[in-house]
Predict the structure.
Amino acid sequence: MSFVEYSEFIQEGDVAIIFLGHDSMMPVKVQQGAQTQTRYGVIRHSKDLIGQRFGTKVTCSKGGWVYVLHPTPELWTLNLPHRTQILYTTDIANITMMLELKPGSVVCESGTGSGSLSHAILRTIAPTGHLHTVEFHQQRAEKAAEEFREHRVGHLVTVRNQDVCKEGFGVTGVADAVFLDIPSPWEAVKHAKNAMKRQGGRVCSFSPCIEQVQKTVEALADEGFQEISTLEVLLRVHDVRSITLPLPDFGSDQPLETPTDTPVPSNASVLCKTTTPPRDMAGHTGYLTFATKPSV
Amino acid sequence: MADNGDNDSQHRVNEGDYVVLKRGDIYKAVQIQKKKKTVFEKQWFFLDNAVGELYGTTFEVVTGGTLQPRKPKCVESSADAKEAGTDNRNILDDGKSQKLTRDDIETLKEQGLKGQEIVQQLIENSTTFRDKTEFAQEKYIKKKKKKYENSVMVLRPSCRVLAMMYHGREPGKICHLRYDTLAQMLTLGNIHAGSKVLVFETCAGLVLGAVMERMGGYGSVVQMYPGGGPVRAGMESFGFPSHFHDTLHEFPICHVNALLAGALDTEAKDKDADSGQANGDKSNLTQTDSEKAESKECSPDTEDQCMETSTSTDPAADKEREEREKLREIRGQEKKVKMEEKRKKLAAAAAVLEGRNADGLVIASRFHPCPVLLGLIKFLAPSRPFVVYSQYKEPLIECYTKLREQGGAVSLRLTDSWIRHYQVLPNRTHPVLLMSGGGGYLLSGTTVSTDTPKMGPTRGEEPAAKRLKLTETTEG
């Protein structure tokens, strides 16, 4: 197993995703002799996981069952331990496409945070690209590096514990794309420009507040970036439902001949298959600002 | 691809490259061919001067139809701290404030004035310009620039650029798939290098190209196609290096059932020289092809025979006959070679599919998605993602329902994506006025094994059933 390559069978040391039911999942580190408690009972790693195929149904001790899934960055995003607020798949998907990431891309990212976007980037740039990720919080930087190793992607990433606004990304002239998710991205624009290839590249800044966006756009324009564009994306989920709508009874259009004792029961109703929106939805995550560094 | 130090060449435009021309928000995909006139935004020009320049360079179209790289001079010196008004209370919009007529402007254009110079002329000849507020002046200049500029940027093709191009220019060709929805598909499908992905699309090859871009030439892609042949125009516009094409297979959907039933025979048993022999195999493909070949062979033969009987002893006619026979043989050989190639390709694609261990499935077509999904999902390994796009919601509701009934998939989600662009300017930041109304719908999910576990009691309920906590008086 790795986050950048599929495998068929579960092995010791893998990270697997236990699927418990609708929107309920948990990550598990597979180890010989270990056990995992779920609401359906105990899963014994040696017997139930190791050597089984990803995607199999596993019966737990209480008789209930779960599915064991191969990890993907998308599943990881939904299950990772949060050290910071994270980016979700909707934003990540757009960032990936708008930064034109693909195998071989060299990417600079700050801040690493909880590694949600980092894993998605690594998946996309493997096997020949590289991610330089900068995190100014020491413990978070160490935790991220540890996770990358466990997820077998350590060879594709370099974690640096420094302040990107002061010291930059630690590399210059190599990046095809730069991503900023920090409180003051305008302070890092110059460093982003230096980290990028001389021949050009793409930059993205993610900010929750519009004031941050304004300052960042100004900084990008001052540094000569082009195609500056700000947008936001939101995902709407549609819950599929079968609904029964009762029909109204407007009575008979024939005059009554004889009064009847029992009224004719009218329980006519119509079955519709439709969707309903959930009660709440994510209304705002952040504004995404993209720009192109022009070729010199 | 990793950058080799200062070696620029992969960042420069070469003849034969597929590129995308850009002006403002208008994109067009073209191929660089010297001495060939290209039309873009009502202008004709040659792309010759783009060769050798870096991708991302902006060019001016000068008289004569050639491109000239634009120098990054200090722009925007025209908007000096000149006079401006405070509001529009006294500005009359009577259509008479511009003194230049359309003919005047045409004359200026013919004189070879650059876009910026024409805009300057318009400003000077506008009676109301100096009464406008600074913001209004900037807006006016921007508007005129957009109309009269003749700059063209030459971009390297990418999913981002091509998806925006198709969505802006020819959305009908791509089933109105909006670019952010395509972005979701690629990520939800976990498309990455080294995997085996199945694609069924009628989006002019754009979705196929996007998938291939994310695979980087590693792994394999099988394009399932309806009808006579796969459509790849959109994919070609990506300008992939030739080795990418080695990872691309195609498989006609008319053989899907045969393949699933194990009844697809891709071996041509009879290597007979007579292409007209009907082989005793079950494959429809080789049979119909050999029949077609036979019928094609027949008509010219009979024609020639008719002609030959009348002039049987003429030596010149004999020579002609010999040559015609030679040609017929060559054509016959070529046909056999083509058929053999086609058979090989079919066999190769079938071999890739047979294992039913594909890593991903992407569907985006004008066909009803339900049968497509239910048919092709059988080729996926367990614990692998699939994504189905549809312009409309109802067909995906059907897919969802049927998948729930038959099992084999979890985490089913029906979603659509909402996108909004912003204008960001000092004191003028707000969402852009026009917004996209819709970008289509996606159904995504993950396959799971459909075998029953060996140990433990089996129950009829799926885990999904346990979640039902109805707050409405409806059936779930």
